Amino acid sequence: MAGGLGLALLAAAPFAAPPAQAQRVAGSGEVVRNASAAFRVTTFAGGLDHPWGAAFLPDGRLLVTERPGRLRLVERDGTVSPPLGGVPAVSAAGQGGLLDIQIAPDFATTREVYLCQAVQLQQGHATRLIRARLAEDATPRLDAVQPLLDATPAQSSGRNHYGCRIAFGTDGKLYLSTGDRYSDKMRAQRLDDLAGKVLRLERDGRPAEGNPFLGREGARPEIFTYGHRNPQGLARNPWTGSLWEAEFGARGGDEVNLLRPGLNYGWPIVTYGVDYDGSKIGEGTSRPDMEEPLRHWEPAVSPSGINFYDGDAFPAWKGSLFLATLNTPGLLRLSTEGDRITGEERLLWGELRFRHVLPGPDGLLYLLTDETRGRILRLEPAAP
């Protein structure tokens, strides 16, 4: 069914669009026609339980995490492997589990992969970063599994807001997002606490050289930015080298941010959203010493994984930032120029909860559905 919203130029900070028509085509092969492109949605792979993170290997195969704690290898024809061995145990309760995955920039020689998970510690639950090696001498599996960092203090109450996205910068450093863990919002503001932050790390988990709080008493040296709520989106802009982040607000106030070292992004002191009971959070919507988001939404769209599109299959989408959204479910496209957002388009709106979006080496766009019987959908160009 054709439908969706055309490109809306951004005149004001919050986006208030008329309702988009639901497009009941996900995985059906039917053609969708929007203002920017005509595309067909097909099911590339299925049989996955809440797929959360994914990373393409140099040979075009895809590593995919399932939140309950499994890792799969998807062949180029969409065949899904049995669960890989060597995956460490996770705490798969609430919003926790096996979450993001990224391969090392030099994977072709090192075979290194990085995973993020929720883990049970003696003091409670925390976000954990892991490094491993993908071995394939007999059957695919992880070996040399090594925990690198726990986003402590661990929290005994609540199993939500782990963050848990991984990205590599142009500097070769590893960036990891951590959530505020929900129960105590002010953890995001405390510099002696790794919750509610984006961390910048060496590949062995040490604080990266040049971090903004290195040597500062009472501050964790891993911190790159702070004041984040639940950042499940993290991506490098391939044209400028900057790092972009997306995070959930409460009721409204979802954000896309341009990350700069040492800056405070406000949560929970400033936010454009309100609490779930409708009450005010913090002091208001802005403060001079805290960073404004590039974009925020009211009502919520609940952005999870994000990625920039630099493929050739959809020329009109080149330079866009895509966001997988959960509520309202769908796919958001933000057109960009440098480090500015210039427009917004809503695709497949009101259809399916998407946990992640990533471009493939074939120039097509891949979407992970947030379902017990989860799928990987593929967007392919169709004749206009």
From TrEMBL:
<dbReference type="InterPro" id="IPR011041">
    <property type="entry name" value="Quinoprot_gluc/sorb_DH_b-prop"/>
</dbReference>
<feature type="signal peptide">
    <location>
        <begin position="1"/>
        <end position="22"/>
    </location>
</feature>
<dbReference type="Pfam" id="PF07995">
    <property type="entry name" value="GSDH"/>
</dbReference>
<dbReference type="InterPro" id="IPR011042">
    <property type="entry name" value="6-blade_b-propeller_TolB-like"/>
</dbReference>
<protein>
    <submittedName>
        <fullName>PQQ-dependent sugar dehydrogenase</fullName>
    </submittedName>
</protein>
<feature type="domain" description="Glucose/Sorbosone dehydrogenase">
    <location>
        <begin position="48"/>
        <end position="378"/>
    </location>
</feature>
<keyword id="KW-0732">Signal</keyword>
<dbReference type="InterPro" id="IPR012938">
    <property type="entry name" value="Glc/Sorbosone_DH"/>
</dbReference>
